[in-house]
Design a protein that fits this description.
single chain; mainly alpha; disordered N terminus
Length: about 425
C-alpha cells in the first residue's frame, strides 16, 4: 500500500514538473515575441504608431481572452483547450514570419493575445489544482521563479536570432508546439472547471484607490517599456543585442527584488513600499529619457564596457522596482478586501492592468503623432511620477491596514486569470 502511495506522489510530482516546464515554455515564447515584434517593425521601417497599434492589439486580445476562455474550458476540457490555444499561437507566429503587412500583424497579435490568456488560464489553474495544499505556496513560488527565468532566457533567444528575425518567429512557433507535447503527456487528473469571478470596478476602487490607479498606471508603463521602447531604441541605432541584454536585465531585476520587496511590504504599510518603488522607477525612466532614447548616442553601436555595465545596472533597478509593483498593489488591495470578494478583486485588477496595456500603446501613438517619438519617454515618466505623488497623498488621508490583518504577499504575475490561491 505504501509503495502504491509513493507511486502516486511520484506521478503527481512528475506531472507538476511537466506543467511547470510547459508554462515556462509558453512564457518564454510570449516574452520573446514581444521583443521580436518591436525589432521586426523597426527593421522594416515601421512607424511608432504601427508599433503601438500592434502592442495594443495583443493587450486587447488578452483582455477579451480573459473573459472568453471559461466556456470553451467547460465544453472541451483543459488539454484540448490548451492544445488549441497553443496551436493558434504557433500558427500566427508563423504567419508573422512570412508577412510585413500591418493588418496581418495587428490581427496576428490580437489572436495570440486571446490564445495566451487561455494558455495561462489552463496552465495556472492546473498547477493550482494539482499542488498539494500543504505545499501550494512553495509551488507557486517555484512557478513564479520559472516565469522569471523564462523571461530572461527569452531575450537570450532573441539575441541569438537578431540577424534573422523571421527565423525567431519560427523558433517561437516551435516553442509553443513543445509546450503542447509536454502538457499532453501529463497523466494527472484534469481539474474541474470552476465558476468565473466577476469584475467589480467601483467596489475595488472604493476599497483601494491606490491599488486600482496604480495597477492601471503600471499596466500602461510596463507595456510601453517592454513593447514600445525596444522599437524606439532600435530606430535610433541601438543594436538588437544591447536591447535584448537590457530587457533581460530588467527581468532579472524582478527575480532579484520581488521576494525581498514582498517580505518588506509584509512588515509595514505597503503603500510606503509602493511610493518608494514608484519614485525609484520614475527616476530611472527620467534617466532613460534624458540620456538614452533621446538620440541613442549613449548606447548606439557597440558601447564600451563601462557604459554597458551602467546600462545593465539601470535596467536591473528599473525591472526590480517597476515589475514587482503589480504583486504589491495586488496584496495591498487584498488587505482591504472582504475574503468573499478575493477572487473578484484579483480578476478586477488583472482587468485593470490589461486595460492599461491597451491604453498605453494608444496613448503613445497619439503622443508620437502630435509631439514626436521622443516625448513618449517623458510621458511615461510623468505618469508614474504622478502616481507616486497620489499614493503618497493617500498615505496621509487613510490609516494603514493593521499588520495583523495583512495577508502574506503572494508572487502574483500579470498573466493569470485565476484568483490568488489562499
Amino acid at each position: 500500500m505504501q509503495d502504491g502511495r509513493n507511486g502516486v506522489l511520484e506521478c503527481k510530482s512528475y506531472s507538476l514538473q511537466a506543467l511547470l516546464l510547459s508554462m515556462g515554455s509558453i512564457h518564454l515564447a510570449t516574452a520573446a515575441l514581444g521583443t521580436l515584434v518591436a525589432l521586426r517593425i523597426a527593421a522594416i521601417g515601421g512607424s511608432a504608431e504601427l508599433a503601438s497599434l500592434v502592442a495594443a492589439s495583443y493587450s486587447l486580445g488578452f483582455l477579451l481572452g480573459c473573459f472568453l476562455t471559461y466556456k470553451p474550458l467547460a465544453n472541451v476540457g483543459y488539454v484540448r483547450a490548451f492544445a488549441a490555444a497553443a496551436a493558434l499561437s504557433a500558427m500566427f507566429a508563423l504567419l508573422m514570419s512570412r508577412t510585413d503587412s500591418a493588418a496581418s500583424w495587428v490581427i496576428a497579435r490580437f489572436v495570440i493575445g486571446m490564445a495566451t490568456a487561455g494558455l495561462y488560464s489552463v496552465g495556472e489553474a492546473w498547477i493550482n489544482d494539482s499542488a498539494p495544499s500543504e505545499s501550494r505556496g512553495r509551488i507557486l513560488a517555484v512557478y513564479s521563479t520559472v516565469l522569471g527565468v523564462a523571461s530572461v532566457a527569452s531575450q537570450a533567444l532573441v539575441a541569438f536570432v537578431a540577424e534573422d528575425i523571421a527565423a525567431g518567429f519560427v523558433l517561437m512557433a516551435a516553442t509553443f508546439c513543445f509546450a503542447i507535447v509536454v502538457l499532453a503527456l501529463t497523466n494527472v487528473k484534469q481539474p474541474a472547471v470552476k465558476g468565473h469571478a466577476t469584475v467589480r470596478l467601483l467596489p475595488v476602487f472604493r476599497y483601494s484607490p491606490t491599488a486600482f490607479v496604480g495597477t492601471l498606471v503600471t499596466g500602461i508603463v510596463v507595456t510601453v517599456f517592454l513593447s514600445i521602447l525596444p522599437f524606439q531604441a532600435s530606430t535610433v541605432g541601438i543594436s538588437s543585442t544591447t536591447i535584448t541584454v537590457n530587457i533581460a536585465m530588467a527581468y532579472a531585476g524582478r527575480i532579484l527584488f520581488q521576494y525581498p520587496l514582498g517580505r518588506i511590504s509584509d512588515l509595514m504599510d505597503r503603500r510606503v513600499v509602493v511610493v518608494g518603488l514608484s519614485l525609484v522607477a520614475s527616476g530611472v525612466l527620467l534617466l532613460i529619457a534624458v540620456f538614452v532614447t533621446a538620440d541613442g548616442s549613449a548606447l548606439r553601436g557597440e558601447p564600451g564596457m563601462m557604459i554597458s555595465i551602467v546600462a545593465a545596472g539601470v535596467s536591473i533597478v528599473l525591472g526590480g522596482t517597476l515589475l514587482p509593483l503589480y504583486a504589491i498593489l495586488m496584496a495591498h488591495a487584498m488587505d482591504r478586501t472582504d475574503p468573499i470578494y478575493v477572487p473578484s478583486t484579483a480578476i478586477t485588477l488583472l482587468f485593470v492592468f490589461t486595460v492599461g496595456g491597451v491604453l498605453g500603446p494608444v496613448l503613445v501613438a497619439m503622443i508620437s503623432a502630435v509631439f514626436g517619438d521622443k516625448f513618449m519617454d517623458w510621458a511615461i515618466f510623468s505618469l508614474l511620477f504622478s502616481f507616486s505623488l497620489f499614493a503618497a497623498w493617500r498615505i496621509g488621508q487613510v490609516d494603514p491596514v493593521p499588520l495583523a490583518e495583512q495577508i502574506d504577499m503572494a508572487p502574483a504575475t500579470a498573466t493569470s486569470v485565476e484568483s490568488l490561491a489562499r
